[in-house]
TrEMBL record:
<feature type="domain" description="Tryptophan synthase beta chain-like PALP">
    <location>
        <begin position="15"/>
        <end position="325"/>
    </location>
</feature>
<dbReference type="InterPro" id="IPR001926">
    <property type="entry name" value="TrpB-like_PALP"/>
</dbReference>
<dbReference type="GO" id="GO:0016829">
    <property type="term" value="F:lyase activity"/>
</dbReference>
<dbReference type="InterPro" id="IPR005966">
    <property type="entry name" value="D-Cys_desShydrase"/>
</dbReference>
<keyword id="KW-0663">Pyridoxal phosphate</keyword>
<comment type="similarity">
    <text>Belongs to the ACC deaminase/D-cysteine desulfhydrase family.</text>
</comment>
<dbReference type="InterPro" id="IPR027278">
    <property type="entry name" value="ACCD_DCysDesulf"/>
</dbReference>
<keyword id="KW-0456">Lyase</keyword>
<dbReference type="Pfam" id="PF00291">
    <property type="entry name" value="PALP"/>
</dbReference>
<protein>
    <submittedName>
        <fullName>D-cysteine desulfhydrase family protein</fullName>
        <ecNumber>4.4.1.-</ecNumber>
    </submittedName>
</protein>
<dbReference type="InterPro" id="IPR036052">
    <property type="entry name" value="TrpB-like_PALP_sf"/>
</dbReference>
Amino acid sequence: MTKPAMSSERTRIALATLPTPFEACIRLSEELGRHGPAPAIWIKRDDCTGFAGGGNKARKLEYLVADALQQGADVLVTMGALQSNHARQTAAAAARHGLGCVLLLADAVADRSEAYHTNGNQLLDRIFGAQIRFLAAGEDGVAVAAETMAALAAEGRKPYFIPVGGSNALGSLAYREALLELAAQAREQALALDHLVVATGSGGTHAGILAGVEDAGLSCRVHGISVSRSSEEAGSIVAGLVQEIFALEGRERGAVAGLEVDDSQIGPGYGQPTAAMIEAVELVARTEGILLDPVYTGKAMAGLLALIRSGAIAPAETVVFWHTGGAPGLFAYPEVFGG
Ligand SMILES: *Cc1c(COP(=O)(O)O)cnc(C)c1O
């Protein structure tokens, strides 16, 4: 067997404070156990990656920005929703490395308040000095991105494009490494992991975790809680990314094992609040003093609570919630909380 290339051989800049903490949620587990036995809940704190307010994109950007620098880029171009955490962290990474940053942002979440348009990540993008181009309703983001890249090149700039959520093979690879980090922390605690729950958006985080579970030889189930797409659609994106991660190292993959996407928490749509999300955000804040977010981790935690309540995660089992950050998004939804 050929030895897989280790990630340290790949260039990577340092942005995140690693390893992130791995903690038991004692009071949350106790609260859920008030009406009968409940599983042990642990949390992987990638909200604490530190850089620019934290979150999962810091890990991905360590690989993506390294690649951009290696290619001699002088401006990063990426896209996302108006309250994209990925856009905020990309703007900060560009600033940190003296690169320009163009954000193509779509106002894709209907009926949001003034705060959604001005506060949260939107405010932070401006503070980090990003150049923001808002997409008009119905405008084709991929076409605008191509035009933007061409226009920058015509000005003599060297633009580097990062896809939505930083989810290409290189960005997703960071989460294979993150899973190996978690596996080491679980071993230190002599903890056997039965379930892992994570938000699935553009899919790279989920894909990297699956690749890592395979490489670490773990048998835990990975539940991706979709925040936007049907299980089928998200599943095919994640499976494709898993294959791309292995392909980066010349390792072929057929069908991807252990792929589970739960689309029961989306509600009316991406970025649209649900009662279960609000309950989850307030419950974790009030038992653990930990902030989730309205778009990703609130819905993922709602998914975890539903899996416990349905018995799909049994009381004798251990579940890890992968906190992927996003708390700046809370300030874009002030009307939703604290009722
Ligand atoms: C981007 C993001 C996710 C989803 O990660 P993907 O790799 O895009 O699936 C989850 N949580 C937060 C807070 C995010 O910003």
